[in-house]
Amino acid sequence: MRTIMTEQSKRRSSAASSRTPTRSRERDTESGGTGRTTKRTAIVRQARHQLEELLGKETESISAFRTTDEGWQLNVEVVEVPRVPDTTSILGTYSVQLDNDGELVGYERLARYARGQIGR
After folding, report:
1. Is the pTM of this model over 0.85?
2. Averaged over 49-70, what is the pLDDT?
3. pLDDT tens column, 17-53
4. Are residues 1 and 43 in the same domain?
5. Contacts of 47 (CB under 8 A, 6+ apart)
6. Based on the domain organization, do 25 and 69 belong to the same domain?
7. d(CA 110, CA 94)
8. Per-residue pLDDT, 19
9. CA angle in degrees (0–180, nearest 5) for 9-42-26
10. Which residue ranges are recorded for the region named Disordered (predicted)?
11. Domain enclosing residue 6, as ranges
12. Are residues 47 and 104 in the same domain?
C-alpha cells in the first residue's frame, strides 16, 4: 500500500510540474516582454472552449496556429467518437477562425480519422 501511494504522489507531482509555467516565460512577461506567449495561450484556450461548447465534444490538441489579417486560424483535433481501446477512437480535424478579440467566427471539419491511423 505504501508503494502505491508513493507512486501516486510521484505522478501527481510530475503532472503538477508539467502544468507550471516555465521560469523564462514568467520572466519574459514580468520584465516587460511582449507577453505574446501568454496571449497565444489565452487565444488557444478560448478557441478550444468555444469549439467544445458548439460541438459538445472534447478537444484533444491544437495541430496548427497562425495569425491572419482578421485574427487567428487554428486546426483543432476533436474526439468525435470515444472508443475502447482509445487507439480506435474517431477524431476530427477542425479549422477554426477567430477574430482579433478571440471570438470564434467560423469553423469547418477538414478531416475525420481513427486515432491509430498513420499518415492520413
Report:
1. no
2. 97
3. 444 444 334 434 444 555 567 889 999 999 999 999 9
4. no
5. 62, 72, 74, 76, 96, 98, 102, 104
6. no
7. 6
8. 42
9. 60
10. 1-40
11. 1-33
12. yes
